[in-house]
Design goal:
Layout lengths: L10 E4 L5 H13 L11 E4 L9 H6 L2 E3 L18 H9 L8 H13 L8 H6 L1 H11 L7 H33 L2 E8 L2 E9 L5 H6 L8 E5 L5 E5 L8 H11 L7 H6 L4 E3 L2 E7 L4 E3 L15 H13 L5 H4 L1
Parallel strand pairs: 1-2, 1-3, 5-6
Antiparallel strand pairs: 4-5, 6-7, 8-9, 9-10
Helix pairs in contact: 1-3, 1-4, 1-7, 9-11
Length: 329
């Protein structure tokens, strides 16, 4: 006797035009639900006003039709207690309650569905161009083709989810590996009344510095990231208001091979922007960062300061023990 072929799911049925909650649910189904619902990743969306006569959820599933937020079935949040969302029901069905990369999507769906606050801002531009506003605009522009709306929105949810995977899985793993292999080190520096948590790391990952400054990434106050090209950028956590003037002065003087560390020389080399004498470094006051070409250095020369010397450079500059810009004035 031959092996029974799994049901091929070809249709996801909604009761009305797609909403943020059902769009998030569709994305999760198409991304994680293939094993349970074979073919769901290629399934099209249909809008039904009512259940077919005599049809049941089980019978429809045997025909490759999955009901979402419809028909009082397992994925219909309207008849559930306590109050929930369709996307949360999908997560529970697929056993994804602990999937950190979905947390923001689920919270967004809940906030939009429960409170109508998919976009919290009261600013009219934020509301119009926020995801919930764009979904509402698509529904108004495509009243006869609401089933096509997921084609526009799912790629945006995919892009967000990819970044969340990097943030919650890939980057924590990369950082842990870098620490173990000696490609990263973490230490503390005191700047006046502030205790600064500093990290030095070698990586070409464009998202890593932001991750390391985030709460999930350890809330590092200063991140010095060296690219494989040798370019090294130093970024800070905005809320800590790190003073970089002493550090940039030391870096510029070290770059030039100058031993002078007197107050006036340090002051002259602590200015924001780029100095003609030291083209390698740009002190960006807008982001409070020291950029050796940024993530796309182009013609900017890599620093000549080896990464092995950066810990002492950072400690001397951030602690302001060689020159305190506050006392200079």
């Amino acid at each position: 006797m031959g092996t029974l072929m799994p049901v091929e799911f070809k249709t996801i049925v909604l009761p009305t035009r797609p909403q943020p909650d059902t769009l998030v649910a569709i994305f999760i189904l198409k991304t994680y639900g293939i094993e349970k619902f074979h073919g769901i990743d290629k399934a099209v969306v249909a809008i039904w006003q009512e259940m077919p006569s005599g049809g049941t959820e089980e019978e429809l599933e045997k025909k490759g039709v999955l009901l979402l937020d419809f028909g009082s079935g397992k994925l219909d949040h309207h008849n559930k207690e306590p109050k929930t969302t369709a996307s949360n029901l999908v997560v529970e069905l697929l056993g994804l309650q602990n999937e950190a990369s979905l947390a923001k999507l689920l919270e967004y769906a809940k906030r939009d569905d429960f409170y109508g606050k998919g976009t919290m801002s009261a600013d009219p531009i934020d509301r119009a161009l926020g995801l919930s506003g764009l979904i509402a605009s698509l529904n108004k522009c495509m009243p006869s083709n609401p089933e096509q709306i997921p084609d526009y929105i799912i790629p945006l949810l995919w892009a967000h989810h990819q970044e969340e995977l990097r943030r919650t899985e890939e980057m924590p793993r990369e950082f842990e590996t870098a620490i173990k292999s000696g490609k990263a080190e973490v230490f503390n520096v005191k700047q006046r009344d502030k205790n600064l948590r500093v990290v030095i790391i070698s990586s070409d990952n464009a998202s890593l510095a932001g991750f390391l400054r985030s709460q999930i990434g350890g809330r590092h106050d200063v991140v010095a990231q060296q690219l494989s090209s040798g370019h090294t950028n130093i970024l800070t956590r905005p809320t800590k208001h790190v003073d970089l003037r002493s550090l940039i002065a030391i870096i510029r003087l070290t770059e030039l091979g100058m031993a002078e560390r007197d107050s006036q020389t340090m002051y002259n080399f602590s200015k924001t922007g780029k100095m003609e004498e030291v083209q390698e470094w740009y002190y960006d006051p807008a982001t409070n960062s020291l950029l050796n070409g940024g993530l796309n250095p182009k013609e900017t020369l890599a620093t000549k300061i080896p990464l092995t010397h950066f810990r002492k450079t950072l400690e001397d500059g951030l602690s302001e023990k060689l020159w305190n810009p506050i006392r200079h004035y």
